[in-house]
From TrEMBL:
InterPro entries hit by this protein: ADH-like_C, ADH-like_N, ADH_Zn_CS, ER, GroES-like_sf, NAD(P)-bd_dom_sf, Zn_alcohol_dh
Superkingdom of source: Bacteria
Organism of derivation: Paenibacillus darwinianus
Name listed for the protein in its UniProt record: L-threonine 3-dehydrogenase
Keyword DNA damage attributed: no
Transmembrane segments: none
Keyword Oxidoreductase belongs to the record: yes
Length: 348
């Protein structure tokens, strides 16, 4: 099969690989679409302790079952499926509690196991038993279905926030994740959605996805503008989707008392932050983090896409062949559009 290997930091190579033999509990998936995630870019540029070279990255995957072991139940050759990223062990405390994204093993497709930047990927026994492998409706496009993985992470974040109808929500950063937050917040009945984004192109996309107000932080004071649009109180909820210590601190100044803050993006290891904890204490703020998604979150995301509750097509702004995977990474790094998707089994 044809694949794209990460052979070292900042080195991607198109190569030919033999298909690994299937055991009786595994599935061979023909990859139809795989999204480029920000975490893929971080591995590409900086490496990761969980990733050895050479490795096929890619965890936002949708495809068709091409073969299966004789003990695999519930799936047939030809089934169209979308995958969650995590491969839970199924027996640790977190897995038993339904929080497989925090499994003590920490297994993820495209990290310890080869992922989707290839014509085929093997889904091992643990993935088939404990991971999220969800069937797609015939009408659901593969390129949209592969985005069920990042959508499930957004849904996990919103579940933690418990946004109430009519609340004012600020979203810092309108990449694919920020855009998905805006789209879902609109459907959930959020009162006023404020997007903070430097790029004019992405501010225009924020408007289309449902933002009521867009702030260019290079031209306007973010805190003053938010206070102006909230009667001087500040926002009820803030969602930070950019890995910036400056923004993490800035959001605390724009919160109303007893507001809720969600940090979606972690900071690079070389960055540290000093939060004004007095703001947290005296405003009685709730500070939350979110990482990944559970199996149930991913199943819900696939249901929403299958039922067209959310239209994923606006998020896909660039499509690439497998041979052009490095171009897809470059587009992601340069923040072109919202989402780049690689199509290994056909020309875009």
């Amino acid at each position: 099969m044809k694949a794209v290997e990460l052979t070292g930091v900042s080195r991607l190579e198109v190569c030919s690989r033999e298909l690994a033999p299937l055991d009786e509990h595994s599935v061979l998936l023909k990859v139809e679409a795989v999204g480029v995630c920000g975490s893929d870019l971080r591995i590409y540029r900086n490496g990761d302790p969980r990733v050895s070279f050479p490795r096929i990255m890619g965890h936002e995957i949708a495809g068709t079952i091409a073969d299966k072991g004789k003990e695999v139940r519930g799936f047939e050759i030809g089934d169209r499926v979308a995958l969650g990223a995590h491969i839970p062990c199924g027996v640790c405390r977190y897995c038993i509690e339904g929080q497989g994204q925090h499994c003590v093993k920490g297994w993820t497709i495209g990290y310890q196991f080869d992922g989707g930047f290839a014509e085929y990927v093997v889904l091992n026994r643990e993935m088939m038993l404990n991971g999220s492998v969800c069937e797609l409706e015939d009408h659901t496009p593969f390129d949209e279905a592969c985005l069920a993985e990042p959508l499930s992470c957004v849904m996990n974040g919103l579940k933690r926030l418990s946004v109430r109808p009519g609340e004012t929500v600020v979203v810092f950063g309108v990449g694919a994740i920020g855009g998905m937050f805006i789209s879902l917040l609109k459907k959930m009945g959020a009162g006023k959605i404020i997007a903070v984004q430097r790029s004019e192109e992405r501010r225009k996309l924020a408007w289309k996805l449902g933002a009521d107000i867009c702030i260019d932080p290079a031209q306007n004071s973010v805190t003053e503008t938010i206070l102006e649009h909230t009667g001087g109180y500040g926002c009820d909820v803030s969602i930070v989707t950019v890995p910036s210590n400056e923004v993490q601190n800035q959001t605390l100044t724009a919160m109303r008392k007893q507001g809720r803050v969600l940090f979606f993006a972690g900071l690079p290891k070389h960055l540290t932050t000093e939060l004004n904890t007095n703001s947290i204490v005296y405003k009685e703020l709730s500070l939350l983090g979110v990482h990944g998604a559970s199996r149930l979150d991913h199943q819900d995301a696939v249901k929403w896409i299958n039922r067209k509750f959310i239209d994923m097509s606006p998020f896909i702004t660039h499509r690439y062949s497998l041979e052009d995977t490095e171009k897809a990474f470059a587009a992601t790094e340069q923040k072109l559009g919202l989402k780049s998707v690689v199509l290994p089994s056909r020309k875009p």
